[in-house]
Amino acid sequence: MRERRATTGFKVAGIATGKSNGAKSSRKEPIKSVNPKQTATKPKKRAAPAQEESDDDLEDFGNVEIDINSDEEDEEIDENDAEESDNEVEEFPEDQSEGEEEDVAADENEDEDEDDDYMAGDSLDEEDWNEEAKISQRPTKLPEIEANYDSDSSTEDVENTVGNVPMEWYDDFPHIGYDIDGKRVLRPAKGDELEKFLSTMDDPDSWRSVSVDKEGKDMVLNDEELDIIRRIQGGDIPDADYNPYEPTVEWFSSKKEVMPLSAAPEPKRRFIPSKWEAKKVMKIVRAIRTGRIVPRKPATEKPRFYNLWGDEDEPREDHIMHIPAPKMKLPEHDESYNPPEEYLPTEQEIKEWKDLDPEDRPKNYLPTKYNSLRQVPAYGRFIQERFERCLDLYLAPRVRKNRLNIDPDSLIPKLPSPKDLQPFPTQQSISYEGHTGRIRCFSLDPVGLYMISGSDDQTVRLWEISTGRCLNTWTFDGVIHSIAWNPNRELCLFAVSVGHGNVTLITPPRIGSPEQISLTDEYIQQGYAAMSTAGSDDKEARNPIPWVKPNAADQEKLGYRVHLSHTQAVKQITWHRKGDYFATVAPDAKNLAVLIHQITKYQTQAPFRKLKGLVQRVMFHPTKPLFFVATQLYVRVYNLMKQELIKTLQSGVKWISSLDVHPGGDNVIVGSYDKRLCWFDLDLSARPYKTLRYHSQAIRQVTFHRRYPLFASASDDGSIQIFHGMVYNDLLQNPLIVPVKILRGHQVVNSLGVLDIEFHPTQPWIVSSGADHSLRLWT
Amino acid sequence: MAKIQKKGKKGAAANFVTRNQALKKLQISLADFRRLCILKGIYPREPRNKKKANKGSTAPTTFYYHKDIQYLLHEPVLHKFREYKAFAKKLAKVMAKGQYSTAKSLEEHNKPVYSLDHIVKERYPTFVDAVRDLDDALSMLFLFATMPVTDKINREVVEDCQRLTAEFQIYVMKSRSLRKVFFSIKGIYYQAEIKGQTVTWLVPYQFAQTIPTDVDFRVMLTFLEFYRTLVGFINFRLFSEVNLIYPPKLDLIKYEGAAGFNALILEAMHKTAPDAEAKLDTEMIEAEKEESPEDVARKAASKERLKTLGNKVAELQGSTDTDRIDEDVQDETEETAFDEFKATAPTNAAVDGDDNMVTLSQIQAASTEIQQLQNLFSRSVIFLSRETPRYALEFIIRSFGGQVSWDETVGTDAPFPENDEKITHQVCDRPTQGHRFLNRTYIQPQWVADSINSRKLVISDNYAPGRMLPPHLSPFVEAKEGDYVPSTGLEEEDETFEGETEDINPDDIEVQDDEEVDSADEEDEEEEEAKAAVAPKKVVKEDHEAELQAEAAGVAFTEYAEKKPANAKKAPKSAAGKKRTAKEIEEEEAKELASIMMSNKQKKLYTKIKYSQNKKSEEAAKLEQRKQNIAKAKTNANKRSKK
User: Fold this and answer.
1) pLDDT surpassing 80 at residue A531
2) Which of A601, A713, A750, B19 has the fewest CB atoms found within 10 Å of its own CB?
3) What global pTM score does this model have?
4) Structural domain count, chain B
5) Which of A315, A386, A398 sits opposite B43 (nearest CB)?
6) Chain A residue numbers touching B595 (CB-CB < 8 A)
7) Do A741 and B592 touch (CB under 8 A)?
8) Over 90: is that where the pLDDT of B481 sits?
9) Which domain range does residue B60 map to?
10) Strand residues in B534-604 grouped as ranges (E)
11) Which of A235, A238, A54 lies closest to A140, judged by CA?
12) Domain segments of chain A: what residues?
């Protein structure tokens, strides 16, 4: 028995060396069992599954364990091994040490079992049962496994045949798979959470149960399985019996064995020196003799430095991507150890310097004065500064920067000298005193003799321009928003907007010539006549606002001619050049914001059914039947005759404040609350020809001179800017704009400066009114 | 139809790579990449449009030029890095096994060694290019020459730096190419002119450097590695240009005796008799060494011989060589000057232009000026007291043709002792002297630098030991228009000389003042004003000097400016802001008006330039103001002391 077993072991070992892996693994177990020590320590039951496996694997060699000595088997093995093994087979058991003899008895016992196992495999027989019983008695247990391959322990269970698929596929179905007959395996009933909880409370094994998806129920783990889990958690080898530190078996050692593995005589080559080595050595020896090889020759030292640059070196061509490193900054006077005293920082400067972050400091040192060179200490940051320079050299991105080295004055455009562009107003000559509120508006009569001004002190005053004398004063019960003199020289009439929408036409008494007076009367009468002839319904329909005749006393005394009462405050009144029409702007009055009134017919029209945006200003074209409407962002040009929109001027400013049309009619200037002045050339484009931004505050008013090529802007910064704005008849030549004068004099009150300006109709003079209650003439 | 351009194939996207991309491409670690960048002089770039260069991302990244990285791919040093890595692994393995003999042989035979020669040539194709970039290299070497040896800084490195810097200084002395010297609080700045390039370097004062903790010495040492190679090659070339053999041999005895530059034995290229002998001898000795390496005693003897030989050679050179070489240099300069004249003369004859005449004379003037500067101290024999910085002063003085000696306590091999009769100047830096020789001038070190920077020997009275020194100004500042120009030592010197004659007047006035002690300050000022008004009539001087005088007299600057209408324009705006002439106002207004018509872009640029100009002028005005205050305080103090 013993002999046989040993033989088996050895043979298998032989096979293992020459055979495929499958065979190896399957036959390793017997080797282990061969070692007596191992077998002593090794519990039996570990071998069992392995044997089972090996049986399964080796179905072809079903007879192996029986006919292990047969020649067939040997033929499969390497021939050498076979021979040797045959020799050693007999001897091997004697190799065991004497001390192990005690174990043998026990071994025999076990071996018997083992061999029985080998024999088993065809069917479950009694021995098997006995074996199992024995196994179960042993201290450590593995899950019971029937060694027979046809022993099917799962027959009693409905087996799920779905295979290795994710079980969540069955989540929505009542079944969890199919049994071997293709019938559905229904999901076992599952209680709700409470029931589950209760069951876990009741069941003492709940802590060791694991739910099995395939079967849809819990499985209780036995002790062995728990042990395996514990070992895996602990990072141990799952098998408790596996000893990773088994002593090595030195099969091939220097010890001369009584039963050597190989009995082949020692070959001759082991005793004679190598011929080839000798040849190689000789080769070297010959080389040394001839001097081709010098042993231990010190390496020839090449000179470390030599002439690297020849005379015909060509400099590198300049490449745009090559940026040489900038040189270090050269020291200034204050870096001297003995600088002039004015360079020494004051205490405050030293403190400031120290408070700054080192990166923010303009200079990385503090100028210090030492009386002699001997007293100069070492500079503490020398190494750091050198290091920073190193970092700069290899870490700082280099970029080429063009430094403009130009005289800033060369940037200022060359303009014709203002002296050549005279006349224009240059200084203040008359100040018109009298108003006690800010003067929002004023107007000059078409001849240029008189001026009327309206103020927040609710009065309107009539001035003689040349003398500054106040000729007349009208007192109203509201703030004067706007005032405009009729441009017709033959008439003597002005319109004034007071308070909440009252517009009154007034003929100032004792001013006009008799012809003017009579003609004005005629105009007014004509209007009354027209109104009275029209039917009352018609009148209602025609006039959105009422024209009211003032009482006789007022007519006589104050020169009131007509009252028009608007629904909202009228912010601007502007006359058509012929003096028959005038337009009013009441921005808040929605579709009645812009109204055009005709005196001779006492008629009011609302030309726009609907207005886009808040109307700021309107203006009649000086020659054509065109009408300019400035909303916040745009200036729209309408033809009144054809009743159509001609053009929309896009100013690009945020809020238009003022508008004026050049007397030629082709150019428009627009001032805005965002400090910009735009010059539009209507023939050129709908966008500004030039946008200028020079005022520091919002522009309140812009205006053209009727005769001279001048225009001006007034701003809340208290200044008036006079420009020379020449428009040429030649369409190809752009208008020439030259700033000629800044007039300063108005005080800024409550951040309001100059509120209104107007050029004198004939002279190169300008009149301005401001928030400082003053009205000034600049000549 | 043209082919459709694919995105990222052209322009910024293709031109630049980020650092990480570069690392990936080169397959090296960041540390290796940094070393390579330092050695190869590769630096990050700033693409004009970052978004385009970085595939639309605006995240902050470092960009490199794509071609730089491409060139790095086949850099030999990069391969050596890799080889070294493999070698280090092998060595570690062997060491871990305890096979020390194998490790030793590995170290001997298999250690990859790389050289930076090709990189130097690549980065600086011509010699002039290399000289142009010498500034940083020299400053670095001079710093490391004074560094203490630590675990990071090898002794070899420090010694190499010391040697290289000494060699370079020897060249500068021989060729007399030093031009400017500046004692700053950080160290001594030198500027030399080599091959038409100005080379400026900074040398720390001779103190032990404290090693800061916040400095990464790996970076600095990598830089140093390259700079050592560069300076070595440059030195070789420079030495060969003045007919000296490179490397000069080191005389160990002298070196240990702190002889400085004299420890290096200079040998001329064209072998004179002693030199040739020396060479032969050394060769023989070397041959002997090779033949019998085991004979230690003999070796020692040969070494000794070599040393003594070195001494001999040094002696010989000390007496003859330096003079001879100096003469050579002078001859050369003379020759070159003559050549120039010859070369330009025919063109003159052909063109007969006045301009050419002017340039010729200018060239000649410049060359004579430089020649004079080179021989500035040629008639001076200067002795350095022991408290002065010996190496710096020796270098400076010898670079300008002076003879210099020093106290025995600061170094051996002093050419002549302190009591030598021929000594004309003695540099000392303490307020009093024990024994004063009457036939020599005692001066402070600043005299040397100021003389060089002003290109003439300045009057030494101001620099006498213990005296308050005139301010030491930077020679590197070129005053532009509008800059503040401090009074140089020279001007003050002139002033003091004039002052001696002028001193009489103020003294007289002050005597009068003494008589009427109670007189109010206003009167005093009035008088001074009157004096200041008279002054210009007396002496025609430059405005500046006149200003200074007025200042000294205590006249307020504005008043002074008013009195001198010529000065009105020069005066800063802030000072003259109150009263402007009508014409000025008009001009101002015209400018303001015209600025209205400027475009937005121009306006911004204009304001920017104006801002910086104003800042500068404010700075100048501040300094001017301070100077006045100081002058006032001084005069007041003087008066008080006199009263």
Assistant:
1) no
2) A750
3) 0.62
4) 5
5) A398
6) 412
7) no
8) no
9) 12-74
10) none
11) A238
12) 2-137, 167-233, 428-435+612-779, 476-610
Q: Choose from B43, B68, B205, B596 for mutation: most chain A CBs within 10 A.
A: B596
Query: Any CB–CB contact under 8 A between B610 and chain A?
Result: yes
Between chains, do A333 and B473 touch, taking CB under 8 Å as contact? yes
Do the chains contact at B186 and A331, CB–CB below 8 Å? yes
pLDDT of residue B548: 60
ipTM > 0.85 (yes/no): no
**Alpha carbon separation from B174 to B178, B323, B375, B528 (Å, rounded):** 10, 10, 12, 55
Model confidence pLDDT, tens digit, residues B86-95: 999 999 999 9
Question: Does A332 contact B at CB distance below 8 Å?
Answer: yes
State whether B458 and B517 are in the same domain.
no
Mean of pLDDT over chain B: 78
The mean per-residue pLDDT over the stretch A369-374 comes to 91
Cβ–Cβ below 8 Å for B220 and A390 = yes
Residue B293 pLDDT exceeds 60: no
Q: For residues A30 and A43, what is the distance between their CA atoms, to the nearest angstrom? A: 14
Band of pLDDT at residue A590, cut at 50, 70 and 90: confident
B482 interfacial to chain A (CB closer than 8 Å) = no
Does some domain include residue B140?
A: no
Does the pLDDT of residue B275 top 90, yes or no?
no
Of B323, B339, B354, which closes a domain? B323
Same domain? B203 vs B246: yes
CA dihedral over B255, B258, B262, B264, signed as positive or negative = positive
Portion of chain A with pLDDT greater than 70, in percent: 79
Note the CATH number of domain A476-610. 2.130.10.10
Q: Given a cut of 90, is residue A4 above it in pLDDT?
A: no
- What's the confidence (pLDDT) of residue A544? 81
B192 plus B263 within the same structural domain: yes
Domain-located, residue B474: no
Strands A736-744 and A719-726: antiparallel
Enumerate the residues of chain B whose CB falls inside 8 A of the CB of residue A309: 121, 124, 126-127, 130, 233, 237
Query: What pLDDT shows up at residue A629?
Result: 94
Protein fold of A428-435+612-779: Methylamine Dehydrogenase; Chain H (2.130.10)
Q: Give the angle subtended at the CA of B10 by the CAs of B6 and B15, to the nearest 5°.
A: 140
Query: Is the CB of A336 less than 8 angstroms away from the CB of B626?
Result: no
At A713 the pLDDT is 94
Q: Nearest Cβ partner of A408 from B121, B247, B610?
A: B610
Q: Is B364 inside any structural domain?
A: no
Lowest mean pLDDT across A586-590, B519-523, B617-621: B519-523
Matching CATH topology for A428-435+612-779 and A476-610? yes
CA dihedral A682, A688, A691, A696 (to 10 degrees): 90
Residue of A nearest to B217 (CA): A387
d(CA B155, CA B486): 45
Q: What is the pLDDT of residue B553?
A: 57
Beta strands in A621-770 (DSSP E): 626-630, 634-639, 644-650, 656-661, 667-672, 676-681, 690-693, 699-704, 710-715, 719-726, 736-744, 754-759, 766-770
